[in-house]
Specification:
Blueprint lengths: L1 E14 L5 E18 L2 E9 L2 H4 L5 E11 L2 E7 L5 E11 L4 E10 L25 H4 L8 E8 L2 E8 L19 E8 L5 E10 L10 E14 L2 E14 L2 E14 L2 E12 L1 H6 L9 E17 L2 E13 L5 H4 L4 E10 L19
Antiparallel strand pairs: 1-2, 1-18, 2-3, 3-6, 4-5, 6-7, 7-8, 8-9, 9-10, 10-11, 11-12, 12-13, 13-14, 14-15, 15-16, 16-17, 17-18
């Protein structure tokens, strides 16, 4: 079995307030999976590539209140960092043990450990939203880890898995194939999938010095629930997630609620981000300052219209708007409620006979 999937967003991006700006950028990713029987089990190879470093620049695209990774030795602030060219290269081997149980071993020079919900690029609830959530660095930022080994066991609707991985974020050379380092971090995750439409997860991870610009380790806890229902003319998907990062300079929580509804050629989507951010980092650009966190709320809504299918590629145009609710500590820099918006073109690759590669994690590929 071989399948591919991919998407490109090209957008006019306006982020409000003096801390924002206006730009034309693009984000994109392409995924492939090949699977076949191997011995007593099934071997699956997965890969994922992105040209973000070219189309979104090495510094990434503007996104108010977002922070994470670094560029030229400085923390990236009010921007979403681009993905590396090589986002995943993994091998997964699952061996059945009886009719309803299986053992899985997975390894990747670049891949995702057993930590957090399905990454936002693979969530159908985020399929039409061109930007990453503000909660990305509290929920699923480890989806591009530079070295991962995972073992797991599944039985019926339950699955348990644990990983050893390199906890550091990628450096700002987005074109090298990997940034090797020790497998000095670990995680554990449990899944419960009672039906084909529902999935729940809870996970915990210890990340060793993940951010080059921030001191100390991070203890991360996440929990999420996701629902996905297909229809002949579309789908409806929703996700809710909570994450907590315990850092040297404090504890930072995040709550995420997002949904997408596609009916024929029209789609609507929304997202609620409530995130505790590093006050000092946003105001000064310096990480690790001992200041109380600030809680930012971002409310996003958008609509997308499919207008053409050329060469089996789906073309669509969309618009979204985000209203940011700013706490007192940050109003001097951002204002009371800056408004941002994106106008975008979305191109999606041909759909395989098995559908899109949605709701997929590295250690549990589609079967």
């Amino acid at each position: 079995m071989v399948m591919t999937d991919g998407v490109l967003f090209a957008f006019f991006n306006h982020q409000g307030s003096d801390r924002g700006g206006t730009e034309f950028k693009s984000t994109n990713w392409w995924m492939a999976m090949a699977s076949r029987d191997a011995g007593r089990g099934r071997l699956t190879l997965t890969g994922m590539l992105s040209l973000d470093a070219l189309t979104a620049t090495p510094q990434g695209y503007r996104l108010l209140f977002q922070a994470g990774e670094e560029y030229q030795g400085q923390p990236i602030v009010d921007r979403q960092h681009p993905h590396d060219f090589l986002m995943q290269a993994a091998a997964v081997w699952r061996v059945p043990v009886g009719d309803s149980t299986g053992v899985t071993i997975a390894g990747a020079p670049v891949g995702e450990p057993a930590l957090g919900p399905v990454a936002f690029m693979h969530r159908p609830s985020a399929a039409e939203n061109p930007s990453a959530p503000l909660a990305h660095h509290t929920l699923d930022s480890t989806h591009v880890a530079m070295g991962v080994v995972t073992a797991g066991i599944d039985h019926g609707p339950w699955a348990f898995e644990s990983s050893l991985f390199n906890g550091r974020e990628p450096d700002d050379n987005r074109w090298d194939l990997m940034d090797p380092g020790p497998l000095d971090s670990w995680s554990a995750r449990v899944w419960f999938k009672p039906t084909s439409e529902w999935q729940f997860q809870a996970s915990y991870g210890f990340l060793t010095k993940p951010e080059a610009a921030e001191p100390g380790d991070v203890k991360r806890t996440t929990a999420s629930a996701a629902w996905f229902r297909r229809r002949p003319s579309g789908f409806t998907a929703a996700s809710v997630a909570f994450g907590r990062n315990v850092k040297q300079d404090g504890t930072f929580n995040a709550f995420l609620l997002e949904a997408t509804d596609k009916r024929g050629s029209w789609s609507t989507f929304g997202r609620v981000d409530v995130v505790q951010v590093e006050t000092g980092l946003l105001l000064t650009g310096v990480a690790g300052l001992d200041e109380p966190p600030s809680t930012v709320t971002a409310l996003t809504g958008g609509v997308v219209r499919d207008f053409a299918r050329w060469g089996r590629f789906d073309w669509a145009a969309g618009i979204d708007a985000t209203l940011n609710l700013v706490p007192d500590q940050l109003r001097s820099a951002y204002g009371d409620h800056p408004l941002s918006f994106m106008v975008f073109l979305r191109v999606r690759s041909p759909e395989s006979h098995m559908g899109r590669m949605w709701n997929m994690v590295m250690s549990q590929p589609m079967r």
